[in-house]
Amino acid sequence: MVIVIGGMIGLGKTTVAEMLSEKLGSQVFYESVDDNPILPLFYTASQEEIEAKRYPFLLQLYFLNSRFKTIKDALRHPNNIIDRSIYEDWYFAKRNRDLGRISDLEFQMYENLLNNMLEELGDLPKKAPDLMIYLKGSFETVLKRIQLRGRSYELDESLITYYKFLWESYDDWVMHHYSASKVVTIDMDQYDVRNEADRVQVLKLITDALHS
């Protein structure tokens, strides 16, 4: 069983992945964040620096490369959990294209590379995940959880507009663009996985879905 965890920044993907790992005895493949040299630059650069140094495009290539390696490794083994996957990577690239942070030509290059990578997955014994767990929530909940997480480069007030832009179309991506597996949606307005009782409830929702 290969499970991917998706959803907006701050809603608890890593915590849910670790909960599932402990329950199912699975390995977690984490999103490359803390060791990512471009991410802090992406969040803190001025608009002039972004345009000159193309940090959004470089960041997407960095994530695409790391997520391609992750999903290849995960699909070679029977039980794994992925903290955000290559499928979701496209959504971030597209939204940055929509903002003008990634040019149309850069996005075309990105999509061509992504499509080639996805074709390569067809040669693996297991070709796609079995389930995606989509964590959704109100924008107020997203902001609150980002603030509680406390990564300094994520807390600048100027980023609020960017976060809202990402948040606005997430449901549309899940409903109309993601097709690799079955999806289970969990409303994180109702659950805070820092609390033991909520962790139990979230795990029950997921395990019920796995057994259905």
Automatic annotation (TrEMBL):
Pfam family, any one: dNK
Keywords of the record: Kinase, Transferase
Domain (Deoxynucleoside kinase) ranges: 3-207
Tree of life domain: Bacteria
Keyword Ribosomal protein: no
Example of a GO MF term: kinase activity
Keyword Transferase attached: yes
Descriptive protein name: Deoxynucleoside kinase
